[in-house]
């Protein structure tokens, strides 16, 4: 038996890779239109980064991280990054930006790793596209992030549901946490085993539970405990979304279980990807920069599960192989220089080309051109080179004409306009 891929990992090939790339390119374009700059962070970090950011009681830290000792640095435990935000915050602080130029807008793209049970839309290696904004505590910034996601949704032609909530802040959130803790103790016998452990460590995580959804429907509502500044902040977010035509629902069960998350939290879900319906998640984390040793700087952002969004896109699009515009048939090795030159000229004009092997006869090459569903075939043999010409075959019209070798790229470009 040959070597196979590890459980929970995937190969993304051909059409599937095309759809993933479509999502990535669209996300980059939207972020750059909103004046975000790219940041690239390491795939390996000290484990303390995630313990201090995600929290030692989170599922990510307790169960899902790939962590191991670093042989180059004694007693250092490192981890494959399970998410992007902590690394971006660390880089922001380490570069001194939190003190020298705190207002920054970054986007990132890359693989993340979590050792969790594989299923549709959930793999142990997956790609995230994320944005982080630092130095903006205002509600308008929260709304802008949701508007960005809606712009991406429209560009991809997707139907997605936007869910938002407010978590309160350090003034009002303790009251909600206390109410939820008391509710959990009163309903302990109705909660699952995992929630028994969550209750005393981090009661907000009760609302994240997928087992106790019916039970927690009667739990306290975050919005009933908001202070006036938090109510005003959330109202501004709602007003901005409504004015921009972004459709949303308020989901009082939507929480983040860590203390540095404040006020706005949101998820964007798709009905086309199965049980792993969340394709985007984000929120405000005004305490995270300070928690990781930086200045007291506000932060907010979101992360897109690229493969999950690609699944949603795949469910709405017809699948078709990407065909070359032109295939070049070099009839023997002696004409490869001319064939490659023609190919370069075509690509400079943005025309997709494929140079076929000169080791086969014309009939075999034409069968390959038909299989590729190319629009035109350029036949270049010794006779054509000697006369400075190329045979241009229209594979859809089954017609053929001769064109000057040095003008053929311009000739094809005009036909494709």
């Amino acid at each position: 038996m040959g070597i196979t891929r590890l459980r929970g990992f995937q190969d993304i090939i051909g059409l599937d890779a095309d759809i993933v790339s479509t999502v990535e390119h669209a996300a980059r374009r939207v972020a750059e239109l909103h004046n975000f700059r790219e940041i690239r962070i390491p795939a390996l970090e000290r484990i303390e980064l995630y313990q201090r950011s995600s929290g030692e009681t989170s599922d990510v830290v307790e169960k899902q991280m790939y962590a191991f000792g670093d042989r180059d640095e004694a007693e250092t435990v490192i981890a494959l990054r399970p998410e992007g935000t902590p690394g971006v915050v660390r880089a922001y602080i380490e570069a001194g930006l939190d003190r020298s130029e705190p207002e920054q807008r970054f986007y990132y793209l890359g693989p993340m790793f979590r050792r969790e049970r594989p299923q549709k839309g959930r793999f142990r290696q997956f790609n995230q596209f994320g944005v982080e904004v630092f130095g903006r505590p205002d509600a308008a910034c929260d709304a802008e992030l949701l508007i960005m996601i809606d712009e991406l949704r429209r560009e991809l032609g997707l139907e997605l549901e936007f869910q938002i909530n407010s978590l309160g802040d350090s003034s009002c959130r303790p009251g909600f946490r206390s109410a939820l803790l008391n509710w959990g103790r009163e309903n302990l016998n109705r909660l699952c085993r995992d929630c028994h452990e969550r209750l005393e460590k981090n009661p907000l995580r009760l609302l994240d539970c997928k087992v106790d959804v019916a039970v927690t429907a009667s739990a306290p509502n975050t919005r009933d405990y908001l202070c006036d500044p938090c109510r005003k902040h959330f109202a501004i977010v709602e007003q901005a979304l409504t004015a921009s035509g972004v459709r949303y629902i308020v989901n009082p069960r939507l929480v983040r279980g860590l203390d540095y998350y404040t006020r706005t939290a949101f998820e964007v879900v798709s009905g086309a990807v199965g049980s792993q319906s969340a394709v985007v998640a984000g929120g405000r984390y005004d305490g995270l920069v300070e928690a990781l040793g930086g200045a007291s700087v506000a932060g907010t952002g979101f992360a897109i599960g690229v493969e999950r969004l690609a699944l949603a896109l795949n469910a709405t699009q017809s699948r078709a192989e990407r065909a070359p515009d032109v295939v070049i048939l070099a009839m023997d090795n002696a004409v490869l220089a001319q064939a490659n030159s023609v190919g370069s000229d075509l690509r400079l004009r943005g025309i997709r080309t494929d140079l076929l092997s000169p080791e086969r006869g014309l009939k075999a090459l034409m069968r390959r051109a038909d299989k590729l569903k190319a629009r035109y075939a350029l036949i270049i043999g010794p006779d054509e080179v000697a006369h400075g010409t190329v045979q241009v075959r229209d594979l859809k019209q089954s017609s053929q004409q001769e064109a000057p070798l040095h003008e053929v790229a311009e000739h094809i470009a005009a036909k494709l306009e």
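Residues 326-416 form a domain with the Rossmann fold fold (CATH 3.40.50.800). The two ends are 50 Å apart (CA to CA).
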